[in-house]
Amino acid sequence: MIEQRIKSSLKNGETLEILRIVPPEQELAPELNRLFGHKPATIRRVLQERLSGLYASESADFFFLGLLDGKAAGHLWYGYGRKQPKPLANFGEVYTAPEHRGKGVCEALLNEFEAHFRSSPSPASFCTCGEEHVQKLYARHGFRTVIPEAKF
């Protein structure tokens, strides 16, 4: 289900439409699945299961889908457990389609994730990432590397 539509201006002047999606979602699943295509099969399967609402009773999941001219340009997922009073959130699987890299799609998705996260019951969010360029991107948004020498 599309919970919210947000417009965001990118660095090049294009307008990115960001859809905040709460599972289950079937209509936009093909666009998201196309973006999941490069991921390992296990991650792809879990994202698809989350998108279908399979874990909805246990986990509050949110997908942020960025659209340029109606086509998927990037996505971000985050979620947290429903049964804890102050659940830790996890975010990740941030991705920009190759033809849209360098435009600020990830920055726009991270901004919307942060805004939504601030209104969540979660006191903190984490992401496991070993790629230095991604760690730098997240650092610009206030995240810090906990174990700098860790390799994932």
Report a brief summary of the structure.
This protein has 4 helices and 6 strands; from the N terminus they run E-E-H-H-E-E-E-H-E-H. It has 152 residues and is of the alpha+beta class. It is globular, with a radius of gyration of 15 Å.
Chain-wise SSE layout:
Layout: E1 2-9, E2 15-21, H1 29-36, H2 41-52, E3 59-68, E4 71-81, E5 89-96, H3 105-118, E6 125-126, H4 132-139
Parallel strand pairs: 5-6
Antiparallel strand pairs: 1-2, 2-3, 3-4, 4-5
Q: Please count the beta strands (DSSP E, at least 2 residues each).
A: 6
Task: Specify the overall morphology.
Answer: globular
Spell the H/E element sequence. Answer: EEHHEEEHEH
- The residue ranges in which pLDDT falls below 50 over 5 or more consecutive positions are none
Q: For the report, how would you describe the main beta sheet? A: 6 strands, mixed
